[in-house]
Amino acid sequence: MFDQPDLEAILRANLERHPTVTVRGNAEVTGLAQEDGRVRVDVTDRITGARDTVRAGYALGCDGAGSLTRASIGASLLDLRFTQRWLVVDVATDADLAQWEGVHQVCDPVRAATYMRIGETRYRWEFRLLPGETAEDYGDLARLHPLIAPWTGDIPLDRLEFVRVAGYTFRAQVADRWRDRRVFLLGDAAHLSPPFIGQGMCAGLRDAANLAWKLAGVLSGDLPEAVLDTYQTEREPHARAMIRLARLIGTAMTAGGELGNLLRGVLAPRLHLLPGLSDQILSAETPALRRSSLVLRPRRRRGLAGQLCPNATLADGRRFDEVAGGRFAVVTRAAPTAAVRAEAERHAAVLVTAGPGDLGHWLGRATAAVVRPDGTVLRDFR
Question: How far apart are CA 63 and CA 59, in angstroms?
């Protein structure tokens, strides 16, 4: 696990390598409109109050649950019927909590909770708020301590640094449309997921990965603008599937009152006895993307198209993502056939040979697979 600000610092540092990118801090987008085949973005400096206007070919709205971008294109959030109020707490300490390093899920119909380590000395708890409670009720460490004490034990309060406490309403919602001409919605602007399977930020990153290479191809003239229609076609069903799973896990953790608690106590310790269930629970694989002009899934057999290619270690010690480098790649089990070579040339793809390890195992019965710049399989060969 990691702390999101650490990731954001890495992303910001990487942007400095790109002279064509301008980052504006302490700025607020106050208006967005499409005019004459361009997008006008009105910006206000939060410190000086100065106003500016940026005009661009496209705008990508990654502006969260209260998205101004979503409002500007007239999109609405569709409710998938899940709402819960939770308290999120971050505490820092150099003390050893002596806890299992994985994520703890406390299935309690009264006070469900989650605990995880998110850094070298930083820890996070999430507690479901009771009716009438607010985050302000836990505004200091003394009032918060009874909630976190099962994990902190006899560690004195003066060794626990109170970093933040915030109240969140966990929702399950999806926007009815993610695009209007040259404006797109990504991340929480397009979909809101309960956090029970930790896929909120992941879904936003997948949105960006899916759209960025297509938009780059359109801007360079290598791809027709019609490929941008595949963004919502591919991403919305996937986002819905992950939200449904998160909602299911949240309901399993918190619903049913005393009867639900009893069933969890009886069933949960025995789930590992069901054949294959442990592999399913521990698997990081998510649903394949649906068919589109860039996901050529066969209709009469199962294949790799729409799946993510694993970032496996190759024979030379490098990872697949390092070799592919954001380009098309053709993964082959052996020397590529003429048809596979033609496909590689058509996409200006790098050729990657899968040995007997993880990548070869992933290919399964396929002899080759064409992998898009976002790591998704476009098609496979048998």
Answer: 11
Alpha-carbon distance 152 to 164, whole Å?
A: 17
CA distance 243 to 203: 10
Radius of gyration of the CA atoms of the chain, in A: 24
**Residue 297 is part of which domain span?**
288-382
CA 380 vs CA 292, 299, 347: distances in Å? 14, 13, 14
Strands 59-61, 377-381: parallel, antiparallel or unpaired by DSSP? Answer: unpaired
Nearest to 32 by CA among 209, 171, 189: 189
Q: What is the mean pLDDT of the chain?
A: 89
- Residue found by looking up tokens 């610092």 in the block: 9
What is the C-alpha to C-alpha distance for residues 132 and 129, in angstroms, rounded to an integer?
8
Among 141, 137, 133, smallest CA distance to 162 is for: 141
The residue-averaged pLDDT of 25-31 equals 94
Cβ atoms < 10 Å from Cβ of 132: 6
The model's pLDDT over 70-122, given as tens digits with 9 standing for 90+, comes to 999 999 999 998 888 999 999 999 999 999 998 898 887 778 899 999 988 99
Residue 243 included in any domain: no
Q: Average pLDDT in the 325-332 region?
A: 93
Q: Total structural domains in the chain?
A: 2
Min mean pLDDT across 8-12, 23-27, 282-286, 335-339 is at 282-286
Could you tell me if residue 54 is inside a domain? Answer: yes
Asked whether residue 132 is assigned to any structural domain, the reply reads: no
pLDDT of residue 281 exceeding 60, the answer is no
